[in-house]
Every structure is written in structure tokens, then in C-alpha cells.
Amino acid sequence: MDCIFCKIANKEIPADLIYEDENVVAFNDLNPTAPVHLLVIPKKHYSSLNDIDEEKVFGQIFSAIPKITKKLGIKEYRTVVNTGKSAGQSVFHIHVHVLSGREFTWPAG
Ligand code: AMP
User: Fold this and answer.
1) What is the 3-state secondary structure (H, E, C) of 25-62?
2) Phi and psi at residue 3, in whole multiples of 5°?
3) Quick check: CB of 86 below 6 Å from ligand 1?
4) Which of 88, 95, 101, 105 lies most in the core, judged by the most C-beta atoms within 10 Å?
5) Domain boundaries defined on the chain
6) How far is Cα 101 from Cα 38, in angstroms, rounded to an integer?
7) How far apart are CA 107 and CA 109, in angstroms?
């Protein structure tokens, strides 16, 4: 499958990896929009949130996040999952953005 995030998870293309376990990898976003901007992905391919058919995947992703932020010394951060083109999704392998290091406004743009 021609998926850039699968290739990152499989180490076929390089990325700035900051965390890895059996099910999940996290790496710095190529075009950061905050001083800390990383992406957490399951190693298994799911195009979007709509395609996750195993509840355990949510646990795998979200339980990794506090481990990563703790390691980075971050206590406050925003997590974002864009689902579908109109919501801003541009890479169709589900990923959670973890953003920190500046003030964020709400509602999101
Ligand atoms: P989204 O628009 O929610 O689908 O987010 C996709 C994110 O992936 C964007 O923030 C991109 O900057 C980021 N991105 C795309 N390709 C790469 C890559 N090869 N390595 C790291 N981040 C990437």
C-alpha cells in the first residue's frame, strides 16, 4: 500500500521518531505548527477514525500520549484528529496531532 505513514512505521522512509512501542509510533511533524508538534499513529493502517474497527486501537494510541508527553516534560498540550478532507485531513493513515509550547485558541479555525 502506498501510504507514507505506513512507510514511516515500517522504517522504509526516515522520520524524526520520538517514541515507539509494539503498536504505535510517534514522530515530529515535518511542518510543525507549534514548538512541539508530533504525530502519533498506529502501526496498523486505518485510513481515518471512521475505519477503526478495534476498540483496543484507541487505547494503544491514547495511552501512548501521556508517556510521550511525560518524556518530553510537557503537561499541557492539544490533541487533534482531523477526519476527512473538509476537516483538514491530508494524510489518510489515522494520526493524532500533539501540539504544545504556545497558546492555542478555541474554536479551532
Ligand atoms: P492532517 O492534515 O491532519 O492529515 O495532518 C497530516 C500531517 O502530516 C501534516 O501536519 C503534515 O505536516 C504531516 N506530514 C506529512 N508528511 C510527513 C512526513 N513525511 N513526516 C512527518 N510529518 C508529515
Assistant:
1) EEEECCCCCCCEEEEEEECCCCCCHHHCCCCHHHHHHH
2) -125, 120
3) no
4) 95
5) 4-100
6) 12
7) 6
Residues 12-28 pLDDT 10s: 999 999 999 999 999 99
pTM: 0.97
Residue of minimum CA distance from atom 20 in ligand 1 = 30
Q: Which atom of ligand 1 is nearest to the CA of 4?
A: 19
∠ Cα 13 18 24 (to 5°):
75
CATH 1.10.443.10 fits 4-100, yes or no: no
Do 29 and 99 touch, CB atoms closer than 8 A? no
- Signed CA dihedral, 78, 29, 36, 107: sign only: negative
- Report the candidate in 46, 20, 17, 21 with the shortest Cα–Cα distance to residue 29: 17
